[in-house]
Amino acid sequence: MQISSRFTIALHILTAIHTFKDKYRVTSEFLSGSVQANPVIIRNILLQLKAAGMVKIPRGRTSESITLLKKPEEISLLSVYSAIEPLESDTLFAFHKNPNPSCPVGKNIHSILDDRLLSVQKAMEDKLKNMKLSDILSDLNQLI
Amino acid sequence: MQISSRFTIALHILTAIHTFKDKYRVTSEFLSGSVQANPVIIRNILLQLKAAGMVKIPRGRTSESITLLKKPEEISLLSVYSAIEPLESDTLFAFHKNPNPSCPVGKNIHSILDDRLLSVQKAMEDKLKNMKLSDILSDLNQLI
DNA sequence: TAAAATGTAACAATTTATATTACAATTAAG
DNA sequence: CTTAATTGTAATATAAATTGTTACATTTTA
Hints:
Structural class of chain A: mainly alpha
Shape of chain A: elongated
Distance between the termini of chain A: 33 Å
Radius of gyration of chain A: 19 Å
Number of strands of chain A: 2
Oligomer: homodimer
Largest sheet of chain A: 2 strands, antiparallel
CATH architecture of chain A: Orthogonal Bundle
CATH class of chain A: Mainly Alpha
Strand content of chain A: under 5%
Number of helices of chain A: 6
Largest interface: A-B, 58 and 58 residues
């Protein structure tokens, strides 16, 4: 199974908030137009980013925009990933429930794999930690 | 979303095939008893491992066991992962379809993220490549 | 007070994962 | 040659997760 598109949508959203901050008023409706996804999906992702302290979302009839609360170099892809992906007990790899406890393999396989697969997950997270929103923005500036 | 339990079940299966090769006759029924999952699920995973050249599955009424076709040191966790996970065009991260092509962000975000997230995926795969079935077997031998 | 926007709940649709049943095909034993 | 044990495979059911939609209360400004 793939990691859900909510993560890449969140990166799209953050990129758009910064890119258009001086040109347009950025609302969930505006962002929904760029992503081409339902506004409610955008709002829910925005709420998760807000809970992680990354964005400010003005309420009511305002002329303000949704804005970043951190500098792009301070927003790592890992922090976005963690804000968005509600992994069951933070583990990337799923296990079959109830392996046979009276089998020496069934009894021990879970804890053995847990340690090893956690280190795999950590390798991925380290890579995400070293990538920043600013990297994506500079990639984008090369293209537009 | 998590990576499906089929991967960890496959590791359980391979571990059991090797661990019990001299003590029991290893069949899909036997493995199903250790994993405590339906025999058909075990057989389907076994067929994927067979397609990857990792196991030999005797047919019919035989006294043979299901056996490994490679040494445990030659079976990397990456090869198991690749045999089992049918990732859409081999990409771990999913994207929202149809971002707005008339928006500079919508138009370019996919290709930018593609490159960067592929390198994240590669970091994970490198880690999996350096772990072997033999590592899991020696972890297990410490415990039994 | 009305209009514009967000926050949130409820629900529908779609897709994926997991489990189950059934049976044809293969092989060995009697 | 027939029976029994086992795998291969299809069809279907169940459950869970993802994505999309509608509706409306809440907040704020004009």
